[in-house]
Structure formats: C-alpha cells, structure tokens
Amino acid sequence: MSGRECCENPPALRSSSGNGCVLQLGSFNTYISGPSTSKLAVLLVSDVYGYEAPNLRMLADKVAAAGYYVVVPDFFYGDPYTMEKTLSIWIQSHGTAKGFEDAKQGCCSSQR
Questions:
Q1: Strand ranges (DSSP E) for 40-101?
Q2: What number does CATH give the domain 4-107?
Q3: Which entry of 22, 49, 73, 98 is 20 to 30 Å from 57 by CA?
C-alpha cells in the first residue's frame, strides 16, 4: 500500500497525452506505444491514477523508443482515483480479480 504522500500531488489526467494511441485491447482501453512489429513487448501497470497519467505515458514512450511494443491497459475501466474520493473506499471497489482475468484474455488474444 502506498503512503499518503503519493496522493498529495496527483497528476492532471489527460487522455491526449503521449506519442502513442489508445486502442481497445480485449475489454480494456489501452495506451499503446512503439512498433507493433517488435518481437519484444512490455506491459506497464499504472498506479491508482490510471493509464491517462502523463508521466506513465512518457515512461511508455521512452521504453517504446528502445524498440519495445508497450501496452498500458486501463485496469480501472475509466474510474481512476481522484482526490474527491475516499482512497480506502475506492480501493475496495477496485479489486484485482476482474482486471487479472481480463488481462489474461487480452494477452492471449493479442499474441502474435
């Protein structure tokens, strides 16, 4: 669990940030960066702020620049944590089971 310091300076979420694009991958909206022809892939998992966080997308773009195909799924299904929400309640409603099962299906369907 992260300390409260992680929530003191939340990012401004922007769906338009980054050099990549957002596509539907399995049941997720997914930020994708890098060459789709790459034999190497990286799955980046966000913190509570979700896949629209600009620094996460910058990291994905940097990894992609090294030749990797990078996918960043929206494991929160459009509901990232915001300061208006109580963190403990938000965490309770965002368990790992659904995201894990959906990620398995998405990975299997995207194998080249």
A1: 41-43, 69-73
A2: 3.40.50.1820
A3: 98
